[in-house]
Amino acid sequence: MNRRSIKLIVSLFLILIVSCNEPETVVTNIVHTDGSVTRKIQMKSIEGDVNKRFKVSEIQVPLDSTWIVRDSVDVDKKGDSIWIRTAVKQFKNVDELNLAYKKDSSANKNVPRQAGFNKRFKWFNTEFRFSERIDKQLSYGYPVKDFLNSEELLYFYSPESLKHDKETGPDSLKFRALADSIKHKTDLWTTKNIVSEWIGKFSDLTAGRVGKDMTRESLKARQDEFIQVVESNNAKFDSLWQNGIILKELIGEENAVNFKAEADSALGSVTKYFLVDFKDYSLRIVMPGKLIGTNGFIDSSHVLLWPVKSDFFMTEPYEMWAESKIPNAWAWVVSGIFIVFVLSGVIMKIIKKD
Amino acid sequence: MIDLQLIEECRGGNFNNFRKLVELTSPFAYSVAFRMLGNEDQAKDVVQETMVTIWQKLKKIKTAEVYKTWIYRIVVNKCYDEMRKRKRNPESVADEQTWGLISNRISEGPSPALENDETARIISILTERLSTKQKAVFVLSDLEGMSNDEISEITGISKSAVKANLYHARKSISEKVEKYL
Amino acid sequence: MKPESEKYNEVLNLLRKSKPVLDSTDDIEREVIKRISKVNSSGLRLSGVLDFLFSWVYIGWVRRTLIAASAALVLIFIYQQAIILKRIDAISRQTVVTDKENLFTHSDEIAKLLMVYRNSGKRFPSKTITISESQMNELLESVKELQIKYKDLENLIEGDPELKKLVHKKLIENNNNNLNL
Questions:
Q1: Is pTM, for the whole model, over 0.90?
Q2: Structural domain harbouring C141
Q3: Tens digit of pLDDT for each residue in C99-108?
Q4: Domain identity same for C101 and C85
Q5: Residue of A nearest to C83 (CA)
């Protein structure tokens, strides 16, 4: 669990954020040429209590009794026991996988996820594309790329193991500075998202019933001002909001009274996202044939790897995709024979000029 | 007369009918080849090769009218090949004797036809300075009696080129005749 | 203006009258049949099969269509393969994550590798660098090994305060030399 705390959301919400019972999970999708997927989940836990270990409600991805499960134990360098659960299931196609996601009762059941598979015949090669996509949570958020440069973006999406190694490696100073810069910028990004989302939701609820000063555009134009108000009242935000003080400061006394319900509803909608405690995991994909494109990281066994974290799909859909190709041997042979046949005919015609 | 029926039967692989075709085709093929090459053995070789080629490519023939033009074309092309080989080994011609022979035959009035070797010597001396194409055009036109259209089809050169070649051939031969006779 | 004169016409008449005579077509027939039979038993069959297979070559629109189709196939192949190779090349430049070490293919890593190469005493031309793939892999492996050993050494030094002080002092002394590598 690596959830970043949010200054605005205090007390009750902070408690929900600090929960670390989920296992360290890696999900591997082995994609086959016919569109079937062999899905393997590897979970590692140091939880001593067997009743709490690998609880379905703590697991990050769908897992039920139809899976083939195997448990084992390992010992780490410090001498602690690590319990490992490996579960494997064969899905005939991505529709079955998507059905599993729909019926999901795991920890991340409230986050809609979807897999996709596509096969394209291109005569000399057949190209395959597999993806898993998580829809964005906020409707009015900003893309993170508006806040980070390309180097920061790459680091932002990197797996934790990679970040750990960089920050303890030869260029550790550089990468620690980079990490700090990213944290500072993403804190600002998160704050802006929350405010923007609230403005968006509030405008949706009050559409057509407000004056010119309360339209979405005018509220958006005052966004920075809102952020200032919120940040300056950060410590006692909850009580100040309950008393309507913050709201009065934002939209004026009259509007605060008239639209208190809508404001509360909008805030509730925003915090609903942060209440959803998404449990991180890693996703790997093994594609058939030769890899020709991906937006993931390539690990030591040439398998594609993506970290799956809530930040990644806060304001934009997070799609993890990979493309590969397999040459169609018969098409190569047929084309070769055809070209040789035509060439032979032409050469024969040139020779036999009579 | 060569008709399409005979050709069709030959296409089917009928050797007997092909013998007949050879019998009908050889004389006029030989006439052209001999007049072009001036050598009996070489002319016979050309005729043989022509007939073998005809056997191999009979399927290309669609009408009997086309057949004759096609045969002449093959004969002329094979004569060209032979003449190209010969250019490397030019043969000398006895000029005075040959002019004497021509002069005697003309002054005799109506006389029997020339022997093959005599014909060969006369044609050789008359066409000594002609190019291969000019010689072919002269033989086909003035000796074989073909029209310019037919010659154009056989040799593959345009009608205007046929006329030009023919003009030069006749001019060259006339000058020689005027000079030596 | 025709160059022919009376003498010319007389000479021509003499030649026209004297058509070359083919003494016998039997020899020619025999030779031709002999040659055809030889060819029939071997090459003609093959020739027939080839003619059957490649008869389309003589039909203009079929020939052109097939040639265009072949050319299109070749172009499509080249285009597809070029795109795929480009994409594979782009992937090879993506970050690789290993369990213990990270292997980067950014330009600063290559600069470090070149520095190591230079320090080993080798010389290379000032503007061009030629290193084989296996040499590059060897270098990368060595760097990885060194990184692991450096970490172990770091841990050792961190654990011993006296040693840490000594190393720190030495590092300051050698600082300029290290930078000038």
A1: no
A2: 96-179
A3: 543 333 334 4
A4: no
A5: A292
- B42 is a domain residue: yes
- Judged against a pLDDT cut of 90, whether residue A306 lies above it is answered with yes
Query: Parallel, antiparallel, or unpaired for β A281-286 and A304-308?
Result: antiparallel
Find, among B142, B140, B138, the residue nearest to B153 by Cα: B140
| Alpha-carbon span B111 to C13, nearest angstrom | 11
Q: Say which residue the tokens 């045969």 belong to.
A: B71
ipTM summary value: 0.81
Q: Residue A262 — left, alpha, or beta (φ > 0 → left; ψ -120 to 50 → alpha)?
A: alpha
* Residue B47 placed within a domain: yes
Q: What is the DSSP letter of A283?
A: E
- Long-range CB contacts (< 8 A, 24+ apart) of B120-125? B120/B34, B120/B38, B120/B39, B120/B40, B121/B38, B121/B93, B121/B94, B121/B97, B122/B98, B122/C11, B122/C14, B122/C15, B123/B35, B123/B38, B123/C15, B124/B38, B124/B93, B124/B98, B125/B93, B125/B95, B125/B98, B125/B99, B125/B176
Amino acid type, A89: K
Q: Rounded to whole angstroms, how far apart are CA atoms A208 and A206?
A: 6
Choose from A292, A323, A349, A353 for mutation: most chain C CBs within 10 A: A292
Element housing A305 (H / E): strand A304-308
Q: Are residues C108 and C171 located together in one domain of the fold? A: yes
Do C28 and B44 make contact, defined as CB atoms within 8 angstroms?
yes
How many domains does the structure of chain B reveal? 1
A266 and A242 Cβ atoms separated by less than 8 Å: no
Kindly state whether residues C102 and C174 are assigned to the same domain: yes
What is the nearest CA distance from B40 to chain C, expressed in angstroms?
A: 9
C140 and C102 in a common domain: yes
> In whole angstroms, what is the distance from residue A326 CA to residue A305 CA?
21
Note whether A143 and A316 are within 8 A (CB): yes
Is the model's pLDDT at B59 over the cut of 80? Answer: no
Closest Cα in chain C, distance from residue A325 (Å)? 9
